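Here we describe the complex-level prediction in full. Unlike the single-chain runs in Section 2.1, the two entities below were treated as one system.
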Amino acid sequence: LTDEPLTSSRLALKVHPECTEDVHRLLREFWIEIPDLDEVWRMAFTTALVEVVNNIIMYCGHRGGPCSMRVELRAYPDRVEAEVHDNGEPVSLPAEPQWPESPLAERGRGLAIVRMTVDDFRYDRQVGDNRWLVVKRR
Amino acid sequence: MNTSATALNDQTMLLSVVGRVDMASAPGLKPQVQDAIAGGHNVVVLDLAGVEFMDSSGLGQVISGLKSTRQAGGDLRLARVPEQVRMVLQITTLDRILRPHDTVEQALEDED
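The structure predicted for the assembly as a whole is:
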């Protein structure tokens, strides 16, 4: 996926529990640039990206130091991508969506929701950096 | 997220929720449900018409409220559920145990 985006938007921030507020703001401004996407589509993409950010918030700071995160949104003619980098611990993810065994579990659904709401979800570890990519076709 | 509580009768509390129910705000829902139960209202209806967005943390707090009310011999029901919340309930299949109702009245009539 190396073609040039029609439009893109970036945000760099310290990771803290309220930083999804900044991500919502970034998305609101980004949607103005691509007004042809319908509300349900945007909801699904927003839900996926926020769940990725939630995961970073929960697991980023395990070494006790400050964590930072970069979010880049890119719109292409056929898809929208969000690429998120954080400098937290490496993460181990299941290959397939995993739901909690108990339907009344209060946790453990976030990344399964990501996989169900977008067309592609990837995670890889780069040098000192986690990279998360969510892709949804338009 | 903001909530306001209105007693509908001796057993039932309506909690109207406004804003985003997410990792940062969702823990605020639990004490509201606990207060309702402590006041004798073991049936809680969550009016979600004002909810802009709910994530998996928000769902977790709703499930926590459901368990608390059921332990108290009551129930928790969802009313006026916005599209995004319906979407996450469907994806997670939680709509089987937390059925979304279009109105508060329909939520009150749900006896399952």
